[in-house]
Amino acid sequence: MLLDGQRTIAHIDMDCFFVSVECLKDGSLKGKPVLVGGRGDRAVVAACSYEARTFGIHSAMPMKMALRLCPHAIIRGGDMEEYSNFSRHVTDIIAGNAPLYEKSSIDEFYLDISGMDKYFGSLKWASELRQKIMRETKLPISLGLASNKMVSKVATNEAKPSGQLSIPFGQEKIFLAPMPIDKIPMVGKETAAQLRRRGVETVKTLSEIPIGLLEAWLGKNGISLWNKANGIDETPVIPFHEQKSISTESTFSTDTIDMDFIHSELVRMTEKIAFELRQQNRLAGCVTVKIRYSDFETVTKQMSIAYTASDHVLLEKVKELFSKLYDRRLLIRLIGVRFSHMVSGNYQISLFEDTHEMISLYQAIDSIKSQYGWQLLMRGSSSGGRFEEQLQPYQKKETFTMKRRYPK
């Protein structure tokens, strides 16, 4: 019987998503240690198969180290466009069946199916949806079912690979109790180490610590951990269609056809909202460019892209859209850039050709912008250089301009 306030949340996760897609493209990869990522000495592992994990390999590990651990591993360079297409296919299947769903990343979803027991049976319905996704995409899918998002995600992780697990209402705390503390989502290495130094090894022990003491140890994070250890999570499933886009527009004081100026503005605007994407730990799957001419006619053009939050990728798409859109050769009054179809995700791991140096560069730039404002550090082209030069952002000729906040 469904109690007042009781929820039923399903968590769906595509197992080893990038690797699974590569195995669909090349069946000979199945059952072998596969690494997805760049091939250079400074490249990182974006994803790895379960077979590779047995050698101690994990995502974000330097590729050079991964190959030392498993010299016979097979490397695939990665195809973000193909992964994005599979992600959208799964999204379409879920959207056509689920009453309320949240796309929390490129390869995982939360579904609020509260009340389904009255009609179909929640587990039966979720199981059939999982089978439908696997049948239509050929991808391995794992499923967790529980009364909240956190427990359903843990259940999914326990069901992997390609399994399902349902935690009955009221059994959340019992289910979590014997697990090591780092099984709880968002418990990183530092937090786990800090707790273990205090003798906290299992979720059961963590759940028994007074909440005030945990708060004294870990601040507000301690309160959150206590709730999670006790199987409590009130976080709602956020409807995917309500995910907001990020956009910016620039209305010129004087209508213009100065392409150097307009291109510089596009760089500045793109750089600004790409930084916002990364601050929110999101990836965009669609880019839109807007032009308003001097006669007030407004035109827009958009394109779906491989999920990303990287300046140099987004800039290329913005330039391409603007070039296709600007066909009247009239004076321009306004331009705008919008990123949409957003999902949660870490932009660094999706950069398959990135070196540690490039990742470090992004981190350093974002750190400076976070402290002093996004305007403080910009590429040289956004302060007046030619746009074509901007589209080769991390080659030797790339320059960044540090703006002074105060007069000399």
Automatic annotation (TrEMBL):
Record: residues binding Mg(2+): 13, 107
Chemical reaction(s) catalysed: DNA(n) + a 2'-deoxyribonucleoside 5'-triphosphate = DNA(n+1) + diphosphate
- Quote the catalytic residue positions: 108
Domain called UmuC: residue spans: 9-188
Q: Top EC class per UniProt?
A: transferase
Under Gene3D superfamilies, the record lists: 3.30.70.270, 3.40.1170.60, 5' to 3' exonuclease, C-terminal subdomain, DNA polymerase, Y-family, little finger domain
EC number(s): the record gives: 2.7.7.7
Q: Which InterPro entries match?
A: DNA/RNA_pol_sf (IPR043502), DNA_pol_Y-fam_lit_finger_sf (IPR036775), DNA_pol_Y-fam_little_finger (IPR017961), DNA_polymerase-Y (IPR050116), DNApol_IV (IPR022880), IMS_HHH_1 (IPR053848), Rev_trsase/Diguanyl_cyclase (IPR043128), UmuC (IPR001126)
- Cofactor comment: Binds 2 magnesium ions per subunit.
Subcellular location field: Cytoplasm
* Function field: Poorly processive, error-prone DNA polymerase involved in untargeted mutagenesis. Copies undamaged DNA at stalled replication forks, which arise in vivo from mismatched or misaligned primer ends. These misaligned primers can be extended by PolIV. Exhibits no 3'-5' exonuclease (proofreading) activity. May be involved in translesional synthesis, in conjunction with the beta clamp from PolIII.
Q: Which HAMAP family match?
A: DNApol_IV (MF_01113)
Q: What does the record note on quaternary structure?
A: Monomer.
Q: Return the protein name.
A: DNA polymerase IV
